[in-house]
Design a protein that fits this description.
Layout lengths: L1 E9 L5 H10 L11 E10 L2 E10 L9 H7 L2 E7 L3 H18 L6 E6 L11 H10 L5 E3 L8 H53 L5 H15 L9 H10 L1
Bound molecules: guanosine-5'-triphosphate (GTP) and magnesium ion.
EC number: 3.6.5.2
Membrane topology: Lipid-anchor
Enzyme class: hydrolase
């Protein structure tokens, strides 16, 4: 079973704990008890794959946020939560996202944007469009309006971020596999090349016209030709070949 570490971030009181507890335990917490740090585990099957989720519910209130950097370092995916009833909570997320990207040193971090408390119609100060705009500014980060109270879009948001982590891991694995294959192919070509060079040398010997230098020069040239792209630029493979021959 694969481990997926998801971190829930956002300003104080936006509903991070309520959303998390609704997802993990299926209950709604009415009371407000500011979080210092809570960790949850949930096993879930996503796309036929068993996943072990570790969810870190972080503090939003300023006096408890000292550990944020550590949480971000350890997280693989992030739920960035604001409340549709609190304009400042969305503004705070902009800085939080910057912090995530900086610490992860990447623009490609599994992430969802959540506008929580969408059931509070009378208290709403941020529209769906406000959320969509931010999601677009962030390069079309998936955006969900949620209600922890009614469990609206809660599962969907968590599953989305886990899927993003899965996709990212699959892409990294595929890249590694491709690099390995390329390495193997290069090694094979190099050894073939070395064998060819030996063969030509032997023929030259048979003809009684032994000239290692000219044979090598000829091989190098032909290697260079076949290893140049259509614009005459050297392909990386040719560098390896030349290294072996020379
Ligand atoms: N109506 C409504 N109230 C919500 C919703 N989500 C959370 N609340 C309420 O908002 C208050 C704060 O929720 P929490 O989940 O504790 O907020 P938090 O983001 O974890 O707060 P910190 O831990 O201090 O950062 C609680 O009283 C919740 O019951 C929601 O979707 N709808
Ligand atoms: Mg909390």
């Amino acid at each position: 079973m694969r481990d997926y570490k998801v971190v829930v971030l956002g300003a104080g009181g936006v509903g991070k704990s309520s959303v998390t507890v609704q997802f993990v335990q299926g209950v709604y917490v009415e009371s407000y008890d500011p979080t210092i740090e809570d960790s949850y585990r949930k096993q879930i099957e996503i796309d036929g794959r068993a996943c072990d989720l570790e969810i870190l519910d972080t503090a939003g209130v300023a006096q408890f946020t000292a550990m944020r950097e550590l949480y971000i370092k350890s997280g693989k995916g992030f739920l960035l939560v604001y409340s549709v009833t609190d304009e400042n909570s969305l503004k705070e997320l902009l800085a939080l996202r910057e912090q995530v990207l900086r610490i992860k040193d990447s623009d490609n971090v599994p992430m969802v944007l959540i506008g929580n408390k969408c059931d509070l119609k009378d208290d709403r100060v941020l529209s769906i469009e406000d959320g969509i705009k931010v999601s677009q500014d962030w390069g079309c980060v998936p955006f969900y309006e949620t209600s922890a109270m009614y469990k609206t879009n809660v599962d969907e948001a968590f599953i989305d971020v886990v899927r993003q982590i899965m996709r990212k891991e699959a892409a990294i694995t595929a890249e590694k596999k491709q690099a390995k294959q390329l390495q193997k192919q290069n090694a094979l070509e190099n050894s073939n090349n070395a064998a060819n060079t030996g063969g030509t040398d032997k023929k030259a010997n048979d003809d009684g016209n032994f000239d290692t230098k000219s044979t090598r020069t000829r091989n190098t040239k032909s290697s260079q030709k076949e290893n140049n792209d259509e614009f005459g630029n050297k392909k990386e493979k040719s560098i390896n070949k030349c290294c072996v021959i020379m």
